[in-house]
Amino acid sequence: MADSVAAGLGDENETENEDKEKEKRLFSGVKKTEKQAAASDVTETLGFYERKAKCKERKSNVSDLSLVRFISAELTRGYFLEHNEAKYTERRERVYTCLRIPKELEKLMIFGFFLCLDVFLYVFTLLPLRVLLALIRLLTLPCCGLGGSRILQPAQVCDVLKGFIMVLCYFMMHYVDYSMMYHLIRGQSVIKLYIIYNMLEVADRLFSSFGQDILDALYWTATEPKERKRAHIGVIPHFFMAVLYVFLHAILIMVQATTLNVAFNSHNKSLLTIMMSNNFVEIKGSVFKKFEKNNLFQMSNSDIKERFTNYTLLLIVCLRNMEQFSWNPDHLWVLFPDVCMVIASEIAVDVVKHAFITKFNDITADVYSEYRASLAFDLVSSRQKNAYTDYSDSVSRRMGFIPLPLALLLIRVVTSSVKIQGSLSIVCVVLFYLGMITLKVLNSIVLLGKSCMYVKEANMEEKLFQNPPSAAPSRVSSRANRTKHTREPPGEPAEEGMSASVTTQPTQRDECPAPQLPTSESDQFLTTPDESEDKSLIQDDTELKHRAPKKDLLEIDRFTICGNRID
């Protein structure tokens, strides 16, 4: 009995032990599956966690991605500009260049303005005296005898021709009624006057470009050596062509002055505002074009000529208005705000235009010093012993400013506005003329001194003693002659000082050697390569490439004054 009871207890214990072992096995299996699942959840593939691990991390980092933390990160985020030092240095230099443009540009404009003023005063002061001296020499020639091969020197012949042109055109201008022209223009609509004014500006540039060619042809035809073969139509046809040109150009400028006068006298000033806005349209037409240094030099010369012409037109408008109001000084203060507004808009447009042109084309502000030196070189070279042209003609070629039509119009307006009656009026006219001569002489002395200083600073003294460069008769012949290398006779030795050569008179040369382009080291100071000539030229037999010569600023004239291209 006891054995059976003990056996039963043992069986129960075994069953309990088996149940416990089964529970342990199940519990251990569950733990293993949980560990394997956890291990599978945190497996890495190429350094990144699986989706479940990422979700867990996102849940754990939700507290870190707060709005305050984002704002603080934006407020404390930093960077280092020195990592791109060259870029920011270039931007700073561009800003400094734009800030220097107004100062350097106005230096050039002021110098060019006084150059134009010197040429303009020459027509009223020294030109009549030179014509008078030439006529005295011509009249006293039978008494004194023929001392040389020429009756008159070439410069005297040109002066006499200029004097005759001015006298003939002055009498022709008396047949033009200024009052009728004023009322005819005033009766037109505003938009029509705006179109007319724009057309007049274009026509003025075309007249200036072609007019100096007519005058140069006349001067050369009248002074050409007689032993050469005649290849012209004669002096008289050229003279009448020059008279017709000066007369038509003077009428054109008169219409411009009349249109500006109508704009000043309009009640609502709408025409004046539209004409001023035309200057800002010029910015759009020039700023976004490609400019080289030579192109900018042409534009600068054109701006100088335009500014001086506008000032003269404003003077004519003021004279006509003061005459209508019986020279009442109170009316001058009525015109003064409009005059200042026109001048200020002209200066502002020039500054903005040149500032952005230099910025977009990577041109430094020092280029205006080179332009000033080039203009100064023209003044100094016209006083040299081997001068080949008068200074007034040199300025006309360089800037497109021809003083004869503008001076003719001013004489016509002054003589019609101011009445000379009595001996006191004659004395006032004589004193005024002497004052103009004094102003001309002082202006010339100051300009000559400044020009010598600018030429010396630019190291251009060597060019003063070289033969003047002459352009080829055509572009085709000039391209054909580039492949030929001929030795030309050297120019005059630079033994004389510049101060001595400035005051000496030009002498006639018996032999005229072929013109030689400047080849000194100073040429590189004022030259830029021409893209159309940078292409290599191949000879037919030797297959050698030659680089075309660079264009010098001293060779840039008004031929391309209306455009931005240099052929």
Automatic annotation (TrEMBL):
Cellular component GO terms, alphabetically?
Answer: ciliary basal body; endoplasmic reticulum membrane
The protein in question is named Transmembrane anterior posterior transformation protein 1 homolog
Write out the similarity annotation: Belongs to the TAPT1 family.
Q: What is its main location?
A: membrane
**UniProt topology in membrane:** Multi-pass membrane protein
Q: Which InterPro entries match?
A: Tatp1
Where exactly are the transmembrane stretches of this chain?
Answer: 108-125, 164-185, 239-264, 401-418, 424-448
Q: Where is this region: Disordered?
A: 1-38, 465-543
Which GO BP terms sit in this record? cartilage development; ossification; positive regulation of cilium assembly
- Pfam families recorded for this chain? DUF747
Q: Which UniProt keywords apply?
A: Chondrogenesis, Membrane, Osteogenesis, Transmembrane, Transmembrane helix
Q: Where is the composition biased (Polar residues)?
A: 517-529
Question: Where along the chain is composition biased (Low complexity)?
Answer: 467-480
Where's it found, cell-wise? Answer: Membrane
Looking at the record's lineage, which domain of life comes first? Eukaryota
Please report the organism this UniProt entry assigns to the protein: Culter alburnus (Topmouth culter)
Cite the record's Basic and acidic residues compositional bias ranges: 19-35, 534-543
* PANTHER family referenced in this protein's UniProt entry, alphabetically: TRANSMEMBRANE ANTERIOR POSTERIOR TRANSFORMATION PROTEIN 1 HOMOLOG
